Structures are given as structure tokens and as C-alpha cells.
Amino acid sequence: MTTEETSRFVRLRVELVLEVDDEQAVTAAALRRLAGDPEMPEAERAHAEGAVTEDTAEALAYLVDPFDLVSEVPGVELQQASWSSERIDYDPDSPDWELDEDDGEEDDDEDDEAHTG
User: Fold this and answer.
1) 61 contacts 113 by C-beta, under 8 angstroms
2) How far apart are CA 68 and CA 52, in angstroms?
3) What's the pTM?
4) Are 85 and 52 in contact (CB under 8 A)?
5) Is 36 in contact with 28 (CB distance < 8 Å)?
6) Model confidence over 47-74: pLDDT tens digits?
7) Strand 82-83 and strand 115-116: pairing?
8) Is 27 exposed, middle or buried (CB count within 10 Å of its CB: 0-12, 13-18, 19+)?
9) DSSP H helical segments within 1-111, as ranges?
10) Which terminus of the chain is more solvent-facing, meaning fewer CB atoms within 10 Å of its CB: N or C?
């Protein structure tokens, strides 16, 4: 393919597994971020505050923003992003958790809530 035939768009997939040592700190940080968002309508803020207070995974979804990951990369502009979080059972010794495996098509109909930006 020549440069003229190649798409300018790139899908970057990142999967992270985080260990939460201090759920209260994560929740407090998410609540601070929500409180500091002047564009969020009050009804949506109340719903989001309840969600992050009840579920640390939801709090992380409000704290980890794909825009923050690429905002300083020269020559790129984020066009679309979605991300989700869920509690999982994690065994680093399990072959199911090997990195750099291509799982094929991802299931877009997952039960967890997706956030778009």
C-alpha cells in the first residue's frame, strides 16, 4: 500500500490490570474530579457520585481518561475513545493472563458500562 492508500486512523488497544490498595483514596479522587467538572449537569453529577461511591471500578473509570494518555503526543488528535472497568479475579500465573495475545474481535456488548469521549 502506498502512503496515499493508507488510512490516517490508528486504533490503539490498551488493557490494564490494576491492583487497588486504597479504595477510599480512589473514590475520593474520583469525587474530586467530578466536583471539578463545570460542564457536567447536576443530575448527571449526582448519579456519577453515587456510582463512584458504590464501586471502586467505576471510580477508576472516571479517573483514567484516554485523552490524558495521548494529549501530549505530537501529531495526533483523539477522534473517539471508549473505556470500561470491572472487578476481576486475577491470577498472574494463569495462561489466560498472558500479554500480547491477539484475541481477535472484541465483544462490544459487554455488561460493564462504557464511557465515551
Assistant:
1) yes
2) 20
3) 0.68
4) no
5) no
6) 999 999 999 999 999 899 888 889 999 9
7) antiparallel
8) buried
9) 23-35, 42-54, 56-63, 66-70
10) N
